[in-house]
Input
Amino acid sequence: MNPGLALGVVGASLLTVAMLFTAGWDLPPADTQQTGYRGTGMVVLQDREEQTALRAANQVPPVPWELDTSGQKASEVYENVQVLGDLGIDQFSRLMTAITEWVSPEQGCNYCHNPENMASDELYTKVVSRRMLEMTQAVNTEWDLHVQQTGVTCYTCHRGQPVPQNIWFRGGDPDDRFAMAGYSGGGQNTVGVGNTSLHADPFSELFSFDGVIGVTGPTALPTGHEVSIQQTEKTYALMVHMSQSLGANCTLCHNTRAFNDWNQSTPQRTVAIQGIQMVRTLNADYLEPLTSEFPPERLGPHEDVAKINCATCHQGAQKPLNGVSMVEDYPSLRPEQ
Ligand code: HEC
Ligand code: HEC
Ligand code: HEC
Ligand code: HEC
Output
């Protein structure tokens, strides 16, 4: 071989290797968490760098101050407390301080209040927050099969921002310009969940109560079991969303030789199905009825309200905030039933 050419080949190979490394190519080994029997390949891979970043992003804010339980109840002191009336005034003030830090640290109390009249409900953010208080209480009391004793606070979703980072709106072109044979593109063949061209909006259908998640028929041959390509794509798109939200592979929940078989699935799949029901309920009972309260610029292209999916709470962690419970310090967010 011509020495110049040989040198070129060596140079090019070195350059390729260098590019792989500089482009953020991670080296094995990753940590693994076994989720099924040995030999089934059921493990969750955890990249060490990502885990470090995840730990940094999931630090829990400190409790503002020690609670003083003496003193009057909020309902005896204030004019317009419909949810938190039973709290002692110190506990009430502490929660207001915490909420400010969780939701609107830059804007302060006035994000929800007219400082001239704290009792007034003139700002939509206060009206929404009151319902959010009820929603948080409902998650912590009615959905303990999913959230266990860890529970959630406003911080789980908001992380110091008025609008949570992970929300979704109904997809597709509202004018249906691409509607063809009664089927609007609605997110088909656009870059969607997980950078795939799977359906970009699996949520509108599958996070509604009559959404059917599933593809597999009960028999080996296609005898009567009909699942459209669109439904299959939506199922897979939702699964990619669920995996990404939890920072896990499919094998956190499935034995991949039989995705449908519950007997070969992990306990996490059962927790996930609770999560799906919870997301459906929170959107239908809390977010959607608030639509008319939100100003137009907060609504999506179909004038629908921003909604919750798995990433709203999980944000890439298998358990939100890596399983650290904040609710214990704010018992009013998990009232006794
Ligand atoms: C993210 C929204 C939000 C923020 C920020 C917020 N509050 Fe509130 N505040 C509420 C809601 C909702 C209520 C009504 C609670 C209820 O109905 O039980 C309320 C009620 C009150 C009341 C009772 C007023 C009355 O007479 O009825 C006071 C006092 C109060 N907040 C003080 C504060 C202070 C002080 C801050 C800042 C440290 C603050 N709040 C920040 C949402 C907020
Ligand atoms: C399960 C997730 C979740 C939890 C928990 C949660 N929120 Fe929200 N919140 C949302 C979503 C989704 C929206 C809609 C986003 C938008 O404003 O468009 C929202 C909107 C809001 C808004 C309106 C912000 C704006 O500028 O439009 C306020 C204020 C708010 N939440 C306060 C709270 C408070 C206070 C708590 C705790 C008592 C809380 N939230 C708990 C998900 C959550
Ligand atoms: C957090 C748990 C979880 C993860 C991670 C997960 N799934 Fe699922 N999967 C479920 C649940 C729960 C169902 C059943 C939903 C239902 O019945 O409503 C399901 C259903 C399915 C089905 C339909 C099976 C049938 O009955 O036809 C397929 C296919 C599937 N998942 C594939 C995947 C793939 C591929 C991945 C990875 C990209 C994945 N799943 C990741 C929980 C999970
Ligand atoms: C309101 C917030 C919230 C939402 C929304 C949410 N989760 Fe969770 N999830 C939690 C909390 C909190 C835990 C931790 C419970 C615990 O400590 O075991 C959890 C735990 C889980 C676990 C168990 C993890 C493990 O290793 O034990 C799975 C699986 C899971 N969620 C799946 C989902 C899926 C799938 C969705 C969307 C369909 C979803 N979650 C939506 C709050 C949420």
Remarks:
- The CA atoms of residues 266 and 326 lie 27 Å apart.
- The pocket of heme C (ligand 3) is lined by residues 213-216, 235-236, 239-240, 242-243, 246, 248, 250, 252-254, 259-260, 268-269, 272-273 (CB under 6 Å).
- Residues 176-184 have pLDDT under 50 and may be disordered.
- The two ends are 82 Å apart (CA to CA).
